[in-house]
Amino acid sequence: MQIIAQHGDIFIILACLFGFFMAWGVGANDVANAMGTSVGSKAITIKQAILIAVVFEFLGAWLAGGEVTNTIRKGIIDPELLQADPQLLVYGMLSALLAAATWLLVASMKGWPVSTTHSIVGAIVGFAVAGLGAEAVDWGAVGNIAASWLVSPLLAGTAGFVLFKSVHHLVFEDRNPLAAAKRYLPAYVFLVGFVVSMVTMTKGLKHVGLDLSFGQSLVISLILGGLLAGVGVLMERRVTYVESSDDHFGYANVERAFGVLMIFTACAMAFAHGSNDVANAVGPLAAVISVVQTGGEIEGSALVPWWVLVLGGGGIVVGLITYGHKVIATVGTGITELTPSRGFAATLAAATTVVLASGTGLPISTTHTLVGAILGVGLARGMTALNLRVIGTIAMSWLITLPAGAALSILFFFMFKGMFG
Fold this sequence. Notes:
Layout: H1 2-40, H2 46-65, E1 68-70, H3 87-110, H4 116-132, H5 139-172, H6 177-204, H7 214-237, H8 251-277, H9 279-293, E2 301-303, H10 306-334, H11 340-360, H12 366-379, H13 388-420
Antiparallel strand pairs: 1-2
Helix pairs in contact: 1-2, 1-3, 1-8, 1-9, 1-10, 1-11, 1-12, 2-6, 2-8, 2-10, 3-4, 3-9, 3-13, 4-13, 5-11, 5-12, 6-7, 6-8, 6-11, 8-11, 9-10, 11-12
């Protein structure tokens, strides 16, 4: 208690710096791969991707993520174990933020799309083992998170495969592909609006005072999906289609139509990511602030101050602008060649999987989900469409994320304990 009272301001300043660094890593790596399909398929520019990310990441974090966050992410450690020695939580959260952010910096420099969730989980496991012993970790919870390595890509890959096959069958195999694209485009836009609205209504609006029944949520989501489909039709009418002697079937114009869809799916993906992953940056920061301000009280959840959300949002935007291009290149062009129609199928599959998982509490990684969806779309065109070398490198980076986060966290934990303890 005395250490917290003595160094409280320093702890908060360090937590803000490391929280910003972590948010930077989320922007440089996680948000970048969420936008990779849209930029890689040339449906939107990098500037448009940044604008979409700024708006919809924040909305996702606020509406579907909530203003209250768990102090110990994903229930890996019981907060009760830290009551006798609350400064351990402060050291632990500072080391976890710095460790996860450092790993994200390394991964972003290499262009590896890794999971921020797994980075912070590995870091928290590391500090728990170092500070409390291996028995303090809920290894069952860690096992469930590790199982998502397989579950997320499989679910999203299957969805991406089915979606792309439906696009191919309904649109590209039609006698008039452009007419077919115009015919089915509203249905696909409706699907985007309905899925995101449904999960937001059923899960995310309780903390702002709207506790809707399932039936009410269904009706509102159907209406919002319909309105979004109408907006999609209006936007599609403004697209300029080009006659070309080299393009007898009008496939280039079909891709232009799907470029409109990619704007909606990019918004959906940014919203889904915000609801699922922004707490990785602000959760540990809020935990440190809560412990310092209460003089050592440790609670199961902590209120996130508004300025912490602004700090997190600012870090994410800076990360995306300064270093996002490397991961965008890997996701957008490295795994398989993407066009707007393929990018649409992958992004909608990933967004649907993430928002459904967010609604059911299934612990999944946005990154693994999106890469799995891209693999599913590539697989729909055959194994030759996939770059197996890049996929192997990505798989390797996934495997070392948890242990890398844990190792760095143990190192930083003893460093902070030596400095202040």
